[in-house]
Amino acid sequence: MIQKAPKKYDATEKEEEIQEWWESENIHPKVKQTHEEDPDWYFLDGPPYASGKIHLGTAWNKLIKDTVLRFKTMQGFNVRKQPGWDCHGLPIEVKVEEKLNIESKKDIEEKIGIKKFIDECKSWAMEHVDIMSEQFQRLGIWMDWDDPYLTLKNDYLESAWWTLKKAHERGLMEKRLQVIQWCPRCETALAEHEIRGEYRQVKDPSLYARFKLTYTSNEYLLVWTTTPWTIPANVAISVHPDLYYAKVEVGENTYIMAEALVSKVMSELGIYDYKRVDLIKGEELEGLRYEHPLLEEVPKQNDFKSEHRVITGEHVTIEEGTGCVHTAPGHGEEDFEIGKEY
């Protein structure tokens, strides 16, 4: 007999009631058993870090997956529902470093010991696998929580090495020099996803800098940069081969910049008494030598005097700046790629 619906719905109470029923009646195992002979549907769980309690992002991620898995089950598939856990990496290491009051990587070697640190990381990971598994189950997510894959287990490590071996045998691996994101505090490379989305809005200085051409005493390439701290590593200045560049006379000095940006740049610099004296295509500037402005401050730059020259690149635009781009291959992927060409 249909009972009258209560006037007030208590979500927490109802969730606990339903989950208790699932548990007491073995509902999830029965559903799995019902579909054992059905066509397989393979699902690979992209693993969250086992570094703390779940947050909105990890909860949303698993709930979406659970929705798809239930849908495929209802369509008549034998769905593989193995959860996974990423038990390596900086998130766990940083948490353990905080726990052990480690201030630098040297402390691990000199004060804690590498083996103890690794054991602490494993312990932290396994503890939080249990915590997060319980939280996901509380959200009503159906997965095989008693049979997860853990990246710290030998079977997973061996499968990863096996995959790399096969890729190497098939010629699918390449060894090359590449710029990477680097954390000076953690003394390690960072994956792109560890950087993406983690920026905060800050006000940073930009500046104009002049680079004197070697064939004259008063002619300069004018650049604008938002990363002045990379100028000590400058080895080239990029121009666009198809743009036109003006030689602009200001007093006794002459500055080279994109012709289309002259008015804007002079206005920003507060210079109103100037004269365009020549026009030259970017490709004609290629190969011009210049002096690095910080030779005394950065003596190492003296080893690269022969490399300080103008190069051309399609990445140069006239949307901002001067059309002359400061290039430091050690400080960015775009700079690195064009540096390899030269």
What is the name of the CATH topology of the largest domain?
Answer: Rossmann fold
Helix/strand-derived category reads alpha/beta
Share of residues in helices: 25-40%
The end-to-end distance, rounded to whole angstroms, is: 83 Å
Number of domains: 2
Main-sheet strand order equals: 7-8-11-10-12
Explain what this protein looks like in three dimensions.
This protein has helices spanning 11-24, 27-34, 56-74, 90-99, 105-112, 114-138, 154-169, 192-195, 262-268, 282-285, 333-341, and strands at 40-41, 78-79, 84-85, 149-150, 181-183, 188-190, 207-212, 219-225, 236-239, 244-250, 253-258, 275-281, 309-312, 325-327. With 342 residues, the protein is an alpha/beta fold. The chain has 2 domains: 18-169, Rossmann fold (3-Layer(aba) Sandwich); 207-341, Isoleucyl-tRNA Synthetase, domain 2. Strands 7-8-11-10-12 form a 5-stranded mixed beta sheet. It has a 3-stranded mixed beta sheet with strand order 13-9-14. It has a two-stranded parallel ribbon with strand order 1-2. Helix 4 crosses helix 6 (114-138). The longest helix has 25 residues, at 114-138. The chain is elongated and about 95 Å long. Residues 18-222 form the Aminoacyl-tRNA synthetase class Ia domain. It holds the Pfam family tRNA-synt_1. Residues 331-342 have a biased composition (Basic and acidic residues).
